[in-house]
């Protein structure tokens, strides 16, 4: 308890706090800035990463509505580190609103016009819909839903936002990754790639493999996770969580600017789930809790926690076979999270690899389907990278160990955390002019979450057989 109080005191001393507001008191005067953020129950570190940078036309004063406890303390500490860092420190001012029913109080007081939501995933869509129905824009971390039973709520929330010309935006950071951006360019170059094959369920045309680690550093500090993070009924399974990024990328890359109709364009074929097992000591290291909490009792087998964070899903998208594999290991022996993605074309495969050979930094490969085509494909690849110089000056082509690689200057490898600022900048641009929000975003949101929640259903059915 003493440690918790010290953390709170340290966070409040380091962050410029305009007021500590207790139940029943009115909020301070609204900022005259156009965009005023309200952070609702921040339970995930992504909520803080939105504030890793400052933004033009966004008030530095942010109102945080959350119960007093671990999640709030961790959020304040992260913002404090941003304000105190030596290089480009931020200057956020926080007004903290604690007490019962944070959502109702926020909607009643409304000191801002944008709600940032990144925390517990069960019931998240209810918080999203209530905010939108109240006339507020929302910037929301994935996943919006973790259960197919909430699918209609997602549809209703998106329709409500569309009707009111509000921006309800999913934080899809992986669209900002440079290797993904260039991979998208190459799979639409017929001279380099040919045409995307249809593939089969056994050998899909598109395969993505994403490996993550439970114990990791975030913003330079150990990421202490709350105990509820390991409750799949609260957090969601791996297939409902990380998979959202990968399904989103496939739609966005293969069919740019097109809406995906989940009712006729998507066919989820099969899925499987399995746990990562944590000992009590491993759980303590990542949560600072000495024992497994009571709400995880049904997930404890032989004294160890079975955390269902792993899975794969196979599906067809407009007849093209895709497979996604998501893994959560406990701790990386070297490197960190990794991403592998392959698209199979009639002339070549375009692959992102991020293993030991790449020193755990993503690299983009072009692999000709036949040795005889290698020189022609290299020439086509050089023409394409030359044409992209206006957008990405400095990219090039080299052959390394007999393989064609798109060389990317270090300045473009900004990392996962920096992508949050890029997503937020897009969101702010849409706020300034809602007409800029692409019409296909709503359809593709539905298609994405149809795949992920259907995958969870199928994987559970398979395990029950």
Structural class: alpha/beta
Number of domains: 2
Hey, roughly how much beta strand do the residues contain? 15-25%
Please give the alpha-carbon distance between the first and last residues.
45 Å
Q: Tell me the CATH superfamily of the largest domain.
A: Dihydrodipicolinate Reductase, domain 2
**Which stretches are poorly predicted, pLDDT < 50 over at least 5 residues?**
1-11, 17-33
User: Number of DSSP helices?
Assistant: 15
Largest sheet: 10 strands, mixed
> What is the correct CATH architecture of the largest domain?
2-Layer Sandwich
* CATH fold description of the largest domain: Dihydrodipicolinate Reductase, domain 2
Choose one word for the global shape.
globular
Number of strands: 19
Overall pLDDT: 92
Residue share in helix: 25-40%
Radius of gyration: 23 Å
Which key phrases capture this entry?
Rossmann fold; 10-stranded mixed β-sheet; disordered N terminus; alpha/beta; single chain; about 35% helix; 7-stranded parallel β-sheet; 19 strands; 2 domains; Dihydrodipicolinate Reductase, domain 2; about 475 residues
